[in-house]
Amino acid sequence: MTSDIFCQIIAGELATTEVWRDDLVVAFLDHRPVFKGHVLVCPTRHVETLLDLPDELVVPLFSAARSIAAAMGPALGAEGTFVAINNVVSQSVPHLHVHVVPRSKGDGLRGFFWPRTRYADGEEADHAARIREALTRPGQ
Ligand code: AMP
């Protein structure tokens, strides 16, 4: 039983344009690319978000994402890449996927979805302390 559109792609039930596949990872073109050559890199196993990714898939998934990012220059003439994961919020497909988007200076992505804010006095230390504290409790 497949449970989402990327599971269907992985099972071969839905056509896509693959650039990489092994037992653990599949990578295919996003059908509505930010820029042409935009790739989605997914674990073949159904994993919903980054927080659900088992340790044994961390290296395979991110090694594949790194290799695909490295290929963007020689393959497409990209000067760099944008690599991103939406987790729950803004995640339209509930199957973990790493976006690897080819970038070049002046490509117009400047400011894309990165509105910036500022810390009030004391807030920066407080946020860092709260994150450090949570990191000492793995699995939470
Ligand atoms: P996100 O919004 O981060 O969950 O990204 C999901 C991405 O999947 C979007 O960029 C979509 O364009 C892409 N997408 C959805 N369906 C397909 C499909 N059948 N083939 C290729 N890409 C898809």
Tell me briefly what this model is.
By secondary structure, this protein is α+β, with helices and mostly antiparallel strands. It has helices at residues 5-10, 55-76, 123-135; strands at 18-21, 25-29, 39-43, 80-84, 98-103. The model has no long low-confidence stretch (mean pLDDT 92).
Give an overview of the whole structure.
The mean pLDDT is 92. The protein has a single domain (5-114), classed as HIT-like (HIT family, subunit A, 2-Layer Sandwich). A hairpin with a 3-residue loop joins β1 (18-21) and β2. A five-stranded antiparallel beta sheet has the order 1-2-3-5-4, with helices on one face. It has 140 residues and is of the alpha+beta class. 21% of the residues are buried. The protein has helices at 5-10, 55-76, 123-135; strands at 18-21, 25-29, 39-43, 80-84, 98-103. The site of adenosine monophosphate (AMP) has 12 residues, from loops.
Keywords:
alpha+beta; HIT family, subunit A; five-stranded antiparallel beta sheet; 140 residues
CATH superfamily: HIT-like
Helix and strand string, N-terminal first?
Answer: HEEEHEEH
Strand order of the largest sheet: 1-2-3-5-4
Taking the sheet with the most strands, its summary is:
5 strands, antiparallel
Overall helicity: 25-40%
Indicate the low-confidence ranges by residue numbers: none
Based on CA inertia axes, which overall geometry fits?
globular
CATH architecture: 2-Layer Sandwich
The helix-and-strand class reads alpha+beta
End-to-end C-alpha gap: 30 Å
- Radius of gyration using CA atoms only: 17 Å
Total domain count = 1
CATH class: Alpha Beta
Range of strand content? 15-25%
